[in-house]
Amino acid sequence: MQDIAIVIILLAVVTALAEVTDKIKIPYPILLVVAGIAIGMIPGMPSISLNPDIVFLVFLPPVLYASAWNTSWPDFKAAKRPIILLATGCVIFTTCAVAWVAHMVIPGFNWAEAFVLGAIISPPDAVAATAATKGLSVPKRVITILEGESLVNDATGLIAYRYAVVAVGTGVFSIWDAGIQFFIVATGGIVLGLLIGWSFKWIHKFTPDNPTTDTTLTFLAPFVAYLVAESVHVSGVLAVVTTGLYVAWNSSEVFSQQTRLQAYGSWNTVLFILNGVIFILIGLQLPEIVKNIGANSFWAWKYAIIISIAVIVGRIIWVYPGTYIPRWLSRKIREREPETNIKLATIVAWSGMRGVVSLAAALALPLTGKGTEPFPHRNLIIFLTFCVIFSTLVLQGLTLRPLINWFGLQADGKDQEEEQRARLLIASSIIEHIEENYALSLSDEVLNQIKTKYEIRIQRLRKDETEKKLNEEEIRAFHRLQQELLQKERQDLLQMRRQGKIGDEALRRIEYELDLEETRLILDQATA
Predict the structure, then answer these.
(1) Which residues pair with 374 in a beta bridge?
(2) For residues 121 and 357, is the Cβ–Cβ distance under 8 A?
(3) Percent of the chain at pLDDT above 70?
């Protein structure tokens, strides 16, 4: 009962803090981690341990799958060069840089242990990256690169981590063997992800349309991909990501409108709970971690500051040359990819927040190293990992928005332009199709009725274009008026139900239409 009560309390805290972060405009992982630390320090609070197996199985697959689902494959493909440079090159470089610093600074830290630490804290976190960049005025390509990197880099970090742990246990490490195994494990994960994605596409396509079971299958897909991949010793992370990208690309063909709406709402709720709980749990680990450090806590804090600086600086050192050198060396890159600048490179360099995967990897360290000997510096590695997570979340997460504002960066609006153009083209094409194919077979009344629907849509889209010329105050006034009119429609609807003029079925149908209209209005406001 106590564990259930703690979970309920955590969910209440997560929900309350989410409301706060929406108002103060800071990434919610920061507030959640701080809240976790504060809760963990309450006298009499039971010790809550974060089981790494639970994290890797319960939390990681759905979070990665959702991130992949919301990633545009064409955009990912167009930005694959910088994404791969960050997700593999930067992770490996950071691993080596941190290992060198740890080996030089921490007494008794041999190279194998140093590489374990480097591999654990080298990959930025998918959730933290998405939360930190949400709602920020930066070009779409930057968001694509950061989110794409966070999808793939966990595979690089975890593979390097496994080989470093083996090196601690055996005292033997071969870069050549590790490189070959990395290729096999990564390729195997991608291939398996495609096969599982195709299987779920086939299941969705050839089974009767049922929004409830279809939504349930979307939740099963990431766990199936992860478990199957891990059972055959290939990358579970890449299998989940590939499955998500493949199913998302085909979702318009295999899912009904009702399934998409239901799945979207269900996933938003589940992800909110998962992301919230996991960052609270990260914070709750600190008291236990500090207790395990014991008498060496003073020096541990000193090492934590040095390692945190090494992580942040290592990414900066990689990003600037990685941004400019390939462009200087290759004319094809300059012609194929959009122009970049120092401001955009700085945003990418400063967006390396660490999170749940790093802490789970640290907690998953075996208790023993060689034979029956305790794993060397295990408690210190876990402590340093927590400090890096906390420092990158707080320092970089809190300063990212001010940095973007200082640079004066703006979103490029390409998504909105593409959407507006597509809507106009579709509506115009439908009118032409009606005139060419139904002019003789339908009465003038029916024909005019159906054409009017699309003509009104075109007028509304062109009106939206006109709205863009309004100033900010006028746009806010326009949206406020629309919100007020929608509320008046809802009030009239409820009044008619109370007066017995309509039943619940009619109310639900009209209310559903009003909900869709309000959703469209909210999206318009978000992209205005």
Answers:
(1) 368
(2) no
(3) 84
Q: Which of 55-59, 62-66, 293-297, 384-388 has the lowest mean pLDDT?
A: 293-297
CA distances from 469 to 472, 483, 520 (A): 9, 20, 20
Provide the mean pLDDT of the chain: 81
The model's pTM is 0.78
N- to C-terminal Cα distance for the chain? 48
Residue 280 near residue 32 (C-beta atoms within 8 A): yes
Rounded CA gap, 107 and 111, in Å?
12
Q: Where does 2-43+55-407 sit in CATH, by number?
A: 1.20.1530.20
Q: Are 163 and 181 in contact (CB under 8 A)?
A: yes
For residues 362 and 381, the answer to whether their CB atoms sit within 8 Å is yes
Separation of CA 217 from chain center = 20
92-94-99 Cα angle (round to 5): 100
- The tokens for 131 are 């939360």
Tokens of residue 263, six digits: 């799945």
Distances (CA, A) of 247 to 73, 77, 126, 473, 505: 11, 16, 19, 41, 34
Q: At residue 51, what is the residue type?
A: N
CA distance linking residue 7 with residue 13, whole number of Å: 10
- Taking CA atoms, 239 is separated from 205, 233, 242, 357, 490, in Å, by 21, 11, 5, 16, 45
Domain boundaries, the chain: 2-43+55-407, 413-469, 476-528
